[in-house]
Design a protein that fits this description.
475 residues; VPA0735-like fold; Immunoglobulin-like; five-stranded antiparallel beta sheet; 23% strand
């Protein structure tokens, strides 16, 4: 009998200028007996295979588990069937992934076991109909086909027949059992803003009397005082959330390969999720590594088109670019780990329509932002945003609004800023105000990043005829 102990790690191989010893790939030693891997080594290899697959599955599941978090928040807020919940104001937005403070988020997660009608009133709003994996099926409101006029959307789920009379409706087929409906109310006049919220409706086709009035989801309704801790859960809870989704939804063709991988981790449709102790340990470790990978994929992305200006550290966080050749796994994981929902109008290519986002994750030295330090940003005059612009700070770990004593994590063109003589505005980010006029409070021990939004960006944005400098650390 011939025994061989083989180390799969190729420590002497050079790849693209780096030795494998430097990269330290995680690869176990393998015992081979007469040309066949021994049972003990085979068990280790299978364990390693399952671990690697689980880390990749974390990446793939990010959009769905993000949706699950917001659906859970609606349940906590007692949002009922045929009803929307509204998320408004700093306190009630503090759990959402990277929200804007100056808009209302109107959200519902209906089960599509019957034809449903979503009535969207006229007014400045931007939203979408999505499936549970946050794939946009149709844009809504000012960015939709009706360009902000009142509209009726007829939602048809899998296996549901379309009613005979669809005149006056936009018929939208959603491939998942549960839809993700959302829009942002950006109507500026207070009276018209409230009227828009009152007139948003959801009801079964031909039964408008079943529609229920929108209600706010409030932070005071939750144990931790956050209306919506929508970030992806940690540890085994991530996989428990994913199992709930797998059990409820019908398999999509795009997901068959990933669903097959899940079987070896204890998640399979029609079967209880009862992982062994070994599986639990593996899943917890994979979630931890998946979290780190997702952070790198978002904050230090290698995606094409990620950097906006070569001369500064501003990036485009939304670079999802699926084609008929690939599904853009990294692009989707990057965006949906950092944010919630997407649509073409959120990365508009048309001047005066939709919105766009610029993110910054490090200072001019390439270092992340330390909540104990003082930083500033000089926003130049003439930001090319027809509606308004905002600068918002988020916690690096939760991707949610910074919690601070001032109850504000955002400044922008609607904030009554104190302007410099040249029309620019200096924004300051620090634990103490120290005389700063346009100030967002940060917290020692809490790292942060920021998004700069432009609503209805104008031609100068697309031509890059304006420039945002780096956020600079005070000397």
């Amino acid at each position: 009998m011939k025994k061989t102990l083989v180390s799969i790690a190729l420590s002497s191989v050079v790849f693209s200028g780096f030795s494998m010893a430097e990269t330290q790939f995680h690869q176990p030693k393998v015992e081979i007996v007469n040309g066949v891997v021994s049972p003990k080594s085979a068990e280790k290899i299978f364990q390693e295979m399952d671990y690697q697959r689980a880390v990749m599955l974390y990446h793939w599941a990010i959009p769905m588990v993000g949706t699950h978090g917001w659906e859970r928040a609606n349940r906590i807020g007692n949002i009922e069937k045929y009803q929307f919940g509204s998320y408004t104001g700093y306190e009630n937005l503090t759990g959402i992934l990277t929200p804007n403070q100056v808009v209302d988020y109107l959200i519902s997660f209906p089960v599509l076991d019957e034809p449903l009608v979503w009535e969207v009133p006229a007014g400045f709003n931007a939203g979408m109909v999505m499936d549970y994996a946050q794939q946009t099926q149709q844009q809504v409101g000012s960015v939709g086909p009706n360009r902000g006029e009142a509209e009726k959307i007829l939602l048809i789920g899998p296996g549901i027949e379309v009613p005979e009379n669809t005149q006056g409706y936009d018929v939208v087929h959603v491939p998942t059992r549960v839809a993700f409906l959302g829009t942002r109310n950006m109507v500026q006049d207070p009276k018209d803003h409230a009227e828009f919220n009152e007139n948003i409706k959801l009801y079964p086709y031909g039964q408008k009397e079943k529609a229920k009035q929108l209600i706010p989801v409030l932070a005071e309704d939750t144990e931790d005082g956050r209306a919506h801790l929508q970030r992806h859960p940690r540890g085994i809870e991530f996989w428990q959330a994913l199992n709930e989704i797998v059990q409820r939804e019908e398999p999509q063709e795009r997901d068959i390969l990933f669903l097959d991988m899940l079987k070896h981790l204890g998640i399979e449709k029609g079967k209880p999720f009862e992982p062994t102790k070994a599986q639990q340990a593996l899943l917890v470790a994979a979630e931890e590594q998946g979290f780190v990978n997702a952070s790198v994929n978002s904050y230090s992305s290698r995606l094409k088109g990620f950097k906006f200006w070569e001369e500064s550290n501003w990036y485009l966080p939304l670079t999802v670019d699926p084609t008929n050749q690939h599904h853009d796994l990294d692009g989707k994981a990057s965006w949906y780990w950092e944010a919630i929902s997407s649509a073409p109008a959120m990365v508009t290519t048309t001047p005066g329509v939709g919105s766009t986002y610029l993110g910054i994750y490090s200072d001019e030295n390439g270092h992340g932002f330390d909540g104990c330090e003082t930083y500033s940003l000089d926003v130049p005059d003439g930001i090319p945003a027809k509606q308004f612009w905002t600068m918002t700070l988020y916690n690096n770990e939760t991707r949610a609004l910074l919690l601070n004593e001032t109850m504000n994590a955002e400044l922008g063109s609607l904030s009554n800023l104190v302007m410099n003589e040249d029309g620019s505005a200096t924004l300051t980010f620090s634990p103490e105000q120290n005389g700063a006029e346009n100030w967002i409070q940060t917290n020692c021990g809490e790292d942060w990043f920021a998004w700069f939004r432009l609503y209805q960006p104008e031609q100068a944005y697309f031509d890059k005829d304006f420039f945002l400098p780096n956020v600079k650390k005070a000397l």
